[in-house]
Amino acid sequence: MRPIIVTAFMSLDGVMEAPGGEPGHRSSGWTFKDIELDPAAYELKGREQEEAGALLVGRTSYEAFAPVWPSMTEEFPGYNAMPRYVVSTTLEQEDPRWPATILRSLDEVAALKESDGGPIIVHGSATLGHGLADAGLVDRYHLLVFPVLLGAGKRLFSDTDKDKQPLEVVESQTYRNGITKIVADVRR
Protein backbone atom coordinates (compact mmCIF):
# COMPACT_ATOMS: atom_id res chain seq x y z
CA MET A 1 0.00 0.00 0.00
CA ARG A 2 1.25 3.47 -0.92
CA PRO A 3 1.18 6.05 1.87
CA ILE A 4 -0.56 9.36 1.26
CA ILE A 5 1.42 12.29 2.62
CA VAL A 6 -0.18 15.72 2.97
CA THR A 7 2.48 18.40 2.84
CA ALA A 8 1.81 22.04 3.64
CA PHE A 9 3.11 25.41 4.62
CA MET A 10 0.94 26.45 7.55
CA SER A 11 0.62 29.47 9.81
CA LEU A 12 0.61 28.86 13.55
CA ASP A 13 -3.18 29.27 13.53
CA GLY A 14 -3.61 26.59 10.84
CA VAL A 15 -4.06 28.70 7.69
CA MET A 16 -2.49 27.28 4.54
CA GLU A 17 -3.93 29.68 1.99
CA ALA A 18 -1.79 31.74 -0.40
CA PRO A 19 1.72 30.95 0.88
CA GLY A 20 3.47 31.76 -2.39
CA GLY A 21 1.83 34.96 -3.50
CA GLU A 22 -1.40 33.72 -5.06
CA PRO A 23 -3.94 36.51 -5.59
CA GLY A 24 -7.06 36.88 -3.51
CA HIS A 25 -5.84 36.47 0.06
CA ARG A 26 -5.01 39.55 2.09
CA SER A 27 -1.77 37.99 3.36
CA SER A 28 -0.73 36.44 0.06
CA GLY A 29 2.94 35.47 0.01
CA TRP A 30 3.26 35.18 3.80
CA THR A 31 5.92 32.44 3.61
CA PHE A 32 8.56 34.85 2.35
CA LYS A 33 7.39 38.22 3.67
CA ASP A 34 9.06 39.24 6.93
CA ILE A 35 10.58 35.78 7.48
CA GLU A 36 14.31 35.42 7.03
CA LEU A 37 15.28 32.80 4.45
CA ASP A 38 16.89 29.73 5.99
CA PRO A 39 17.51 27.06 3.31
CA ALA A 40 17.77 24.38 6.01
CA ALA A 41 14.07 24.86 6.77
CA TYR A 42 13.20 23.68 3.26
CA GLU A 43 15.27 20.48 3.21
CA LEU A 44 12.03 18.53 3.64
CA LYS A 45 10.69 19.86 0.33
CA GLY A 46 13.64 18.42 -1.61
CA ARG A 47 13.37 15.11 0.21
CA GLU A 48 9.68 14.89 -0.71
CA GLN A 49 10.49 15.10 -4.42
CA GLU A 50 13.14 12.39 -4.11
CA GLU A 51 10.91 9.98 -2.18
CA ALA A 52 7.53 10.56 -3.84
CA GLY A 53 6.13 8.17 -6.40
CA ALA A 54 3.22 10.39 -7.45
CA LEU A 55 1.72 13.83 -6.93
CA LEU A 56 -1.95 14.21 -6.02
CA VAL A 57 -3.75 17.57 -6.06
CA GLY A 58 -7.25 18.97 -6.11
CA ARG A 59 -8.67 20.84 -9.09
CA THR A 60 -7.98 24.36 -7.77
CA SER A 61 -4.32 23.59 -7.03
CA TYR A 62 -3.95 21.77 -10.35
CA GLU A 63 -5.28 24.77 -12.24
CA ALA A 64 -2.82 27.01 -10.36
CA PHE A 65 0.19 24.70 -10.76
CA ALA A 66 -0.31 23.56 -14.40
CA PRO A 67 0.64 26.86 -16.05
CA VAL A 68 3.61 27.46 -13.73
CA TRP A 69 5.29 24.29 -12.49
CA PRO A 70 6.34 22.84 -15.90
CA SER A 71 8.72 25.78 -16.40
CA MET A 72 10.21 25.40 -12.92
CA THR A 73 12.65 22.70 -13.95
CA GLU A 74 15.19 23.51 -11.24
CA GLU A 75 12.68 23.82 -8.37
CA PHE A 76 10.35 20.93 -9.22
CA PRO A 77 12.17 18.43 -11.45
CA GLY A 78 10.82 15.46 -9.51
CA TYR A 79 7.19 16.58 -9.65
CA ASN A 80 7.46 17.43 -13.32
CA ALA A 81 8.75 13.92 -14.09
CA MET A 82 6.47 11.77 -11.90
CA PRO A 83 2.88 10.65 -12.45
CA ARG A 84 0.35 13.31 -11.45
CA TYR A 85 -3.27 12.88 -10.41
CA VAL A 86 -5.96 15.50 -9.95
CA VAL A 87 -9.14 14.80 -7.98
CA SER A 88 -12.11 16.60 -9.48
CA THR A 89 -15.73 16.02 -10.34
CA THR A 90 -15.82 19.10 -12.58
CA LEU A 91 -12.52 19.21 -14.50
CA GLU A 92 -13.33 18.20 -18.06
CA GLN A 93 -9.82 17.44 -19.27
CA GLU A 94 -6.20 17.57 -18.20
CA ASP A 95 -4.08 20.60 -18.98
CA PRO A 96 -1.73 19.60 -21.84
CA ARG A 97 1.04 21.77 -20.35
CA TRP A 98 1.13 19.51 -17.27
CA PRO A 99 -0.74 16.26 -17.99
CA ALA A 100 -2.42 14.45 -15.11
CA THR A 101 -4.82 11.57 -14.66
CA ILE A 102 -8.21 12.78 -13.45
CA LEU A 103 -9.71 10.87 -10.53
CA ARG A 104 -13.40 11.47 -9.92
CA SER A 105 -13.79 10.28 -6.31
CA LEU A 106 -12.06 9.42 -3.07
CA ASP A 107 -12.80 5.77 -3.91
CA GLU A 108 -10.51 6.16 -6.92
CA VAL A 109 -7.88 7.72 -4.63
CA ALA A 110 -8.23 4.71 -2.29
CA ALA A 111 -7.67 2.40 -5.28
CA LEU A 112 -4.57 4.39 -6.28
CA LYS A 113 -3.31 4.02 -2.71
CA GLU A 114 -3.63 0.23 -3.08
CA SER A 115 -1.51 0.20 -6.25
CA ASP A 116 2.25 -0.33 -6.51
CA GLY A 117 4.63 2.59 -6.25
CA GLY A 118 6.13 5.11 -3.88
CA PRO A 119 4.42 7.58 -1.57
CA ILE A 120 1.70 9.85 -2.92
CA ILE A 121 2.35 13.49 -2.02
CA VAL A 122 -0.55 15.97 -1.73
CA HIS A 123 0.43 19.64 -2.23
CA GLY A 124 -1.84 22.58 -1.50
CA SER A 125 -5.35 21.28 -2.06
CA ALA A 126 -7.14 22.23 1.17
CA THR A 127 -10.50 20.77 0.15
CA LEU A 128 -8.91 17.54 -1.03
CA GLY A 129 -6.84 17.33 2.14
CA HIS A 130 -9.98 17.68 4.25
CA GLY A 131 -11.71 14.92 2.31
CA LEU A 132 -8.73 12.58 2.46
CA ALA A 133 -8.31 13.07 6.22
CA ASP A 134 -12.03 12.70 6.91
CA ALA A 135 -12.04 9.46 4.88
CA GLY A 136 -9.04 8.08 6.81
CA LEU A 137 -6.77 8.06 3.75
CA VAL A 138 -3.94 10.29 5.06
CA ASP A 139 -0.96 8.40 6.50
CA ARG A 140 1.47 11.22 7.23
CA TYR A 141 1.73 15.00 7.46
CA HIS A 142 4.78 17.02 6.43
CA LEU A 143 4.26 20.48 7.90
CA LEU A 144 6.35 23.61 7.87
CA VAL A 145 4.72 25.79 10.50
CA PHE A 146 5.51 29.49 10.16
CA PRO A 147 5.61 31.84 13.18
CA VAL A 148 2.73 34.00 11.99
CA LEU A 149 -0.98 34.28 12.76
CA LEU A 150 -3.08 34.95 9.67
CA GLY A 151 -6.58 34.84 11.14
CA ALA A 152 -8.75 34.07 8.13
CA GLY A 153 -8.11 31.69 5.27
CA LYS A 154 -8.35 28.07 4.22
CA ARG A 155 -7.18 25.83 7.02
CA LEU A 156 -5.24 22.62 6.72
CA PHE A 157 -7.57 20.63 8.95
CA SER A 158 -11.33 20.39 8.45
CA ASP A 159 -13.82 21.28 11.13
CA THR A 160 -15.69 18.00 10.67
CA ASP A 161 -16.93 16.63 13.98
CA LYS A 162 -15.07 13.33 14.26
CA ASP A 163 -13.26 11.25 16.83
CA LYS A 164 -9.83 12.21 18.09
CA GLN A 165 -7.05 11.23 15.68
CA PRO A 166 -3.73 10.49 17.40
CA LEU A 167 -0.55 11.45 15.56
CA GLU A 168 3.01 10.31 16.22
CA VAL A 169 5.63 12.98 15.63
CA VAL A 170 8.53 11.16 13.97
CA GLU A 171 10.62 14.22 13.14
CA SER A 172 10.65 17.83 14.28
CA GLN A 173 12.98 20.78 14.26
CA THR A 174 12.73 24.52 14.76
CA TYR A 175 14.99 26.62 12.57
CA ARG A 176 16.67 29.94 13.39
CA ASN A 177 13.96 31.86 11.48
CA GLY A 178 11.22 30.34 13.66
CA ILE A 179 9.83 27.87 11.10
CA THR A 180 9.08 24.52 12.72
CA LYS A 181 9.15 21.27 10.77
CA ILE A 182 6.73 18.60 11.98
CA VAL A 183 6.57 15.18 10.36
CA ALA A 184 3.76 13.19 11.94
CA ASP A 185 2.33 9.76 11.17
CA VAL A 186 -1.38 9.12 11.59
CA ARG A 187 -1.83 6.40 14.17
CA ARG A 188 -4.56 3.88 13.53
From TrEMBL:
Residues 4-180 form the Bacterial bifunctional deaminase-reductase C-terminal domain. It comes from the Bacteria. InterPro entries: DHFR-like_dom_sf, RibDG_C, Riboflavin_Biosynth_HTPR. Pfam families: RibD_C. SUPFAM superfamilies: Dihydrofolate reductase-like (SSF53597). Gene3D superfamilies: Dihydrofolate Reductase, subunit A (3.40.430.10). PANTHER family: 2,5-DIAMINO-6-RIBOSYLAMINO-4(3H)-PYRIMIDINONE 5'-PHOSPHATE REDUCTASE (PTHR38011:SF11), DIHYDROFOLATE REDUCTASE FAMILY PROTEIN (AFU_ORTHOLOGUE AFUA_8G06820) (PTHR38011). This is Dihydrofolate reductase family protein.
